[in-house]
Amino acid sequence: MPEASPEFVCQMERVLSVYQRAYDPSHPVVCLDESPKQLIKEVRHPFVDSDGVQHVDYEYSREGVTDLYMIVEPLGGRREVRVEDNHNRFTYARIVSHIAEHMYPEAEMITLIEDNLSAHKLSALYEIFTPQRAQSIIERLEVVRTPTHGSCGSPPGLNIAECELSVLTRQGVSKRVADKQKLTGQVQAWYKIRNTKQTQVNWQFTTKDARIKLKHLYPSF
């Protein structure tokens, strides 16, 4: 559980204030988070018996690990999931460039909400792109990072992308996926359906709520 501190409160309230903004397509609020996904291959193929019961063998083989990058625009009802080989700073930089240049090329400014992870380094853009391109991406970003321990698992669930990853795990991805190609197909099918429905995230927890319900996280005077 997070401890009371001015740093935690400052970052929490900053995120909450962003979520209270009105929808503006020229200044979208986009949440980003990543999670590892183990690739697992069946040793024996599952089968359905005469009674309609599916049987899955407990044996399996590990085929490596991928990383799922969830990109979600809560008020726009848009999300995209990228399946990557790792979660280092170079992958992060490529994801950020994808958001700025391919998903929202016409946006004047993009507010990016993300967790405070060591791999989240905008400086990595200068390691993989020309200075001109790196600067053009960074100048269109307002990065807002959640406080330490401010994840979906500890109140409040500040990163909406992390919560969307939880939905994806429950609804859109099989427990055992053998390879990256199949995994990519599953996550694409999932987010395309949600995008077609324009499934928005109705965020209702405000700064005022936090100061009442999470009073124990605020420094005392």
Please describe what this structure looks like.
It contains seven helices and seven strands, in the order αβββββαβααβααα. The chain has helices at 6-19, 89-103, 125-128, 131-138, 160-171, 180-196, 207-213; strands at residues 29-42, 47-48, 54-55, 60-73, 78-84, 110-114, 141-145. The strands form two sheets. The protein has a five-stranded mixed beta sheet, with helices on both faces. A two-stranded antiparallel ribbon has the order 2-3. The radius of gyration is 20 Å and the shape is globular. It starts with 5 loop residues before the first helix and ends in an 8-residue tail after the last helix.
- The total count of strands amounts to 7
Indicate the overall shape.
globular
What structural class is derived from the secondary structure elements? Answer: alpha/beta
Mean pLDDT: 87
User: How are strands sequenced across the largest beta sheet?
Assistant: 5-4-1-6-7
Give the topology string: H per helix, E per strand.
HEEEEEHEHHEHHH
- How far apart are the first and last residues' alpha carbons, in Å? 21 Å
User: How big is the Rg?
Assistant: 20 Å
Ranges where pLDDT stays below 50 over 5 or more residues in a row are: 150-155
Strand content: 15-25%
The total count of helices amounts to 7
Indicate the percent of residues in helices: 25-40%
| Biggest beta-sheet profile | 5 strands, mixed
